[in-house]
Each structure stands twice: as structure tokens, then as C-alpha cells.
Amino acid sequence: MAIIYISIAVVVAALVFLGVYAVKLMKSSRQTMENLNRTTQLMQAEMNDVTNQTALLNEKTEYLKYDMYNKKQSIKSVGDSATELKNTTAELLRKFKK
User: Fold this and answer.
1) What does the DSSP 8-state code read for residue 1?
2) How big is the chain by its Cα radius of gyration, in Å?
3) pTM of the model
4) Which pLDDT tens digit goes with each residue over 43-55?
5) Nearest partner of 59 among 47, 70, 51, judged by Cα
6) Buried b (16+ CB within 10 A) or exposed e, 36-61
């Protein structure tokens, strides 16, 4: 009969040990999950910031393209006007020489 009581005591001790270990494991897992969630939130915030910065950079790039096109057109217009002025002046000089 003593063997039965000893066996029951060993089983109860094993169950208590298992329960204590399971509780410690749950606490540790909960803390790890909280850390993982915080890290994920920080990474998401960084990704949102990178996305916003990329959009801003694209917007500025488009503005620069537009601005450069306008300036190119202005310079081309000045060049065309200078050529037209040269031709008009040459034509006037020919008319005055006659």
C-alpha cells in the first residue's frame, strides 16, 4: 500500500511541477509576444514614414520635371526670339541698303 501512496505523491509532484513550469512558460511567452507586438508596431510606423517620404520625393521629382520643362521652353523661346530678331534686323538692313 505504501507503493501506491508514493506513486500518487510522485504523480502529484510531477503535475505540480508541470503546472508551475506551464505558468512560467505562459508568462514568458506573453512578455515575448508583447515585445514582438511593440516591435511590429514600430516597424509599421517606420514603413509608414518611408512611404510618406517616398510619396513626397516623387511629388518633388514631378515638380522638378515640370519646372525644368518650363525653363527649357523659356530658353527655347528666347533663342527663337533672338533668331527671329536677327532675321528681322538683317531684312531691315537689306531694305535700308536699297
Assistant:
1) -
2) 42
3) 0.56
4) 999 999 999 999 9
5) 51
6) eeeeeeeeeeeeeeeeeeeeeeeeee
